[in-house]
Prior knowledge:
38% of the residues lie in helices and 14% in strands.
Amino acid sequence: MTEGPHIPLSVILNKLDQVEHLETISLTGGEPSYHIKIVKDYMLPILKYARERGIRTQINSNLTLDLERYELLAPYLDVMHISFNYLNADDFHQVGFVNAQRTVGQDTATRMYERMVNNTIALSKGGLYVSAESMINTRTHEKLPQIHQLIDEMGCKRHEVHPMYASSFASHLPMVSLDELRASIHGLLDSRNRDMWMLFGTLPFFACNELEADRLLVKRLREEPNVTVRNDPDGRNRLNISTFTGEVFVTDFANEPPLGSIHQDELDTIFARWESNPLNQRVNCFCTAASCCGPNLLVADSYYKTVDFKKRQALI
Ligand code: SF4
């Protein structure tokens, strides 16, 4: 795998320095740790910078490479985030390479799957906080309890669950219906390890929904122990920077054009630009009583095309 040249580390650190209220940084890819040089010369210095500044960090990795490179990062990292949507190596082979540019054989996929599982177990045992994320889609919506059990057995501290939306990298996938989604979440809540923290995000169920079944699910999620429903950070308190081009996006999944570039603007300026963007105005609602910041753009586009959320209010 080859990559284009990265923006110099000093430029990135300088831009981060200019953000007054920076609380978290996520390093994502592809697989950001694919090149050991990037691990040592880029990722480690950013993590050390963040640790010194008291900023929390997350790396999104598939953990399919040698354990040693992850052990280099672990002492400076708050959360190692992995995707886990599988019941076994065959599942991984079928699901994990849908968007791959080259064909990956079963043997290779099996080796990668086993390394991911073993690395997750080793890093968890070593004390690293590993958070595994599963997507709810047409392939997984009936398998979530078993996927959850495997995540628990690998020692992960948190299970994140998000519906999958039609976006640039998953535009070919059929959507699960809201009824299927609701049933899938109830099934997972019924069977989960109640001692493990579960973090749900980008759910399409809101306290202002007229359908009683939606409000009942919202209520259940509020009342379950060790369950959090996260407000969507994209465009609320997060921007996404490409370390190759310097372009800044409101979301790393939607097909919206960049909001600006770190070569021309400060990050605070780019964020202010987003706040007055018409797209943001469509979903920028806020109900204090429900602790809700409204839907993200993909959610609104997928399930609520005709709804003006600014005219709604929480009912519970
Ligand atoms: S913030 Fe928006 S989406 Fe959330 S309950 Fe209120 S009106 Fe509905």
